[in-house]
Write a structure and sequence with these properties.
alpha+beta, globular, 10 helices, 6-stranded mixed sheet
Length: 372
Amino acid sequence: METTTAATDSIDWVVEPGRPARTTVPELDLADACAWLREHRQALRAGLDEHGAVFLRGLPVRSTEDFGLVRDALIVERAGYREKATPRSHFGNDVYSSTDLPPQQSIRPHNENSYALEFPGLLLFGCLIAPHQGGATPVTDVRKVLRDVPAPLADRFRAQGWGLVRNYGEHISLGWRTAFNTEDRAEVERYCRENLIAHEWLDNGNLRTVQRRPATIRHPRTGDEVWFNHMVFWNEWSLDEDTREVLVGDLGVENLPFRTAFGNGDPVAREDVEMIDRAYREATLRETWQPGDVMIVDNLLMAHARDSFRGDRKILVAMGDPVELADCAPSTPPLAGFGPKAPAAPDATASASTPSEPKAKGSWISRLKRRP
């Protein structure tokens, strides 16, 4: 295994295959460590531009309060958690648990809030308790993912974007009250109108939304084009076989908590999902957590994930440096609902005098047009 040392200004990064770039911070008390971080912001930013994520070892982070001070030394502007999708504990001061999903459940790579019109530019993870086994927070270079997605498939996603259908429910996914942090339906409707999200209130009181977003964007600082979406993360073919069979059997495809498609509503073939998933796996790096570790992630350059684990685990997260989608040269514009479908090619074998078969109405998803 080859180990290299890459100097970025005054920080030497240790770079090894399969692991994120890392450095050991000088042994300091918390106040001096925060001062060191502020003094090295430019070098840290340069490291992020090159590596996408950097691991800092040796910081005296022992509490959520310590982590908040480190966050304030590194992040100039905090970013909110919009359109919530997974359960998290809020410890105050905009510090959260990375996720509260069960330890046996691994979480696929994703870029935070890729489905929103504004998303955090930086993520900060910190370890208070490291698990006995597993539990890494892998990071995935989405520049490399895009290079490894077959060109015709990547071009189709560039042209059409990706679509997301969410069914908000209290039992299988987050309910709309939690996701939008309000009890007021009118407030949800206002948010959806302002953020290009088609919405529908169902008879059972639940909410269904549909939005189209670009599959690729460009980093506003580096100019890199990146694969930036939750398409594989929430696709039905990403569910394990038993879970998919139960959910589709009990709920039906239209009522799955999350469902993704091409931006015009066409389904994504299982083999295409598997090819993109393989590109994620081949671009993924991981480091074993130790107490006090802090990882800084450029949310546009790197996706992040979570490995399943055993034992206690307490990983914190904070978000900052919000970025507007409009500033990222999106490959296709965002829409409320799906985009238009391409006209079907004429059937050269059909006789003009032969009456056509009546068309099925299809699902509400296929009938949904752009909504204001």
